[in-house]
Design goal:
Blueprint (H helix, E strand, L loop, with lengths): L10 H36 L5 H9 L1 H4 L3 E7 L2 E7 L10 E2 L5 H13 L15 H4 L7 H4 L12 H5 L7 H11 L10 E2 L3 H14 L3 H10 L24 E2 L1 H12 L3 E2 L2 E2 L3 H8 L8 E3 L8 E2 L4 E3 L7 E3 L6 E6 L4 E7 L9 H10 L8
Parallel strand pairs: 4-8
Antiparallel strand pairs: 1-2, 1-13, 3-5, 6-7, 9-10, 10-11, 11-12, 12-13
């Protein structure tokens, strides 16, 4: 309100008005000050310095990691730690996961084992008779999930990522049966490749009477709310269970959390406890290893995953890919973690395992 210049001021009245206005503002200022102090204290408490060494590791390896990467660590239903290279690449960003999808294909196979519709020791010819015509009749589903097929494959990241385009998964697997040579008998040596997982995916199609990507969606992806995960071939043509898989760090953590909780996702059962135990059981423990990625040197073979032994414990299960994804679970510390990156390199440092060692050192173990 504008004061009339001719109006006589009443000092007592003016003083009262000023006090009555200032008092609420003073109280509000004090309340805001307390809120800011409380907020500041809360932020300090929430900083978890246990993972400072992980931050430092990621900074030191920027040359290998690039800027497009994300890390998520999960325990007891909540995120313990996460890190991303840039604002544009977050734990919700989808990226190729290549061979890290083998774990998911193995889990899909186990859903049919749970239903009694197939056995790991069934011969592939029971579902795909063509393998019997080309001297590959002794290959089992278990061989497919452990890279112990005996079929010749090329070594190295570039060769592993090169695939001929086919219109359907059936065509791709028939080509494996008819065009790939046998190098040795099944179950006699380990040679890392994606061929077996393509065959296992096709077996699921035959048993489930639906396309592989639809079976994955219905049985694994959708129940776990993995909305950023797909298995379509990014270059067109047949779905590629290993080379064509895309996922996010958050999605893969949902899958790992299910395994960590013995096949449960909330109140939903995805796999039986027995199937989870089978996935994690060492397979063909005494076989010679002809080729294995550097991150897996000394590891034991599981179904679509590998058992690592930090400090000789043998309680970590991982499924690293040549494309730049390092997911794992630690049963002793009951946590899961994933490093997802976009920069695959043949001779890069084993950042995933180094990260795992730093994280595990900060968490309490329940194992002796």
């Amino acid at each position: 309100m504008t004061q009339n210049p001719n109006q006589e001021l009443n000092p007592e009245t003016m003083s009262y008005k000023v006090k009555s206005i200032c008092l609420p503002f003073s109280l509000l200022s004090i309340q805001l000050l307390f809120c800011l102090l409380a907020f500041s204290q809360k932020k300090v408490v929430e900083i978890d310095h246990r993972f400072d060494a992980v931050d430092q590791l990621l900074k030191q390896n920027k040359k290998d990691l690039g800027t497009d990467f994300a890390v998520v660590v999960w325990q007891n239903g909540k995120i313990l730690y996460q890190h991303q290279g840039t604002e544009d690449f977050s734990p919700k960003t989808a990226a190729p996961i290549a061979g890290a999808a083998d774990w998911m294909t193995a889990a899909l196979v186990m859903t049919f084992v749970d239903e009694g519709k197939l056995s790991l020791d069934d011969k592939v010819t029971k579902y795909i008779p063509m393998f019997g015509k080309y001297m590959k009749g002794y290959i089992t589903v278990r061989n497919c999930l452990t890279s112990t097929l005996g079929i010749k494959v090329d070594q190295g990241i570039k060769k592993a990522l090169e695939k001929v385009k086919y219109e359907a998964l059936e065509d791709a697997v028939n080509a494996i049966a008819s065009k790939r040579d046998i190098g040795t008998n099944p179950s006699t040596e380990f040679f890392y490749s994606s061929l077996g997982f393509d065959i296992a995916a096709r077996v699921c199609e035959v048993v489930g009477k639906k396309p592989y990507e639809r079976l994955m969606s219905e049985r694994i992806v959708r129940p776990l709310k993995m909305r950023g995960t797909t298995f379509d071939n990014q270059n067109g043509g047949a779905p590629d269970p290993s080379g064509g898989a895309m996922s996010t760090a958050n999605d893969y953590i949902a899958f790992l959390g299910m395994l960590l909780d013995s096949g449960m996702a909330g109140d939903k059962r995805i796999l039986s406890e027995k199937s989870v135990e089978e996935l994690e059981s060492p397979q063909f423990t005494n076989l010679p290893v002809k080729y294995i990625p550097k991150d897996l040197q000394g590891a034991k073979i599981g179904l679509g995953n590998y058992i690592l032994s930090p400090n000789g414990s043998g309680t970590v299960w991982a499924s690293p890919s040549l494309q730049g994804c390092f997911p794992y679970i630690d049963k002793c510390r009951h946590y899961a973690a994933v490093l997802l990156e976009l920069k695959p390199e043949e001779d890069k440092k084993p950042i995933g395992q180094n990260m795992m060692n730093l994280i595990s050192a900060q968490l309490t173990s329940s194992c002796n």
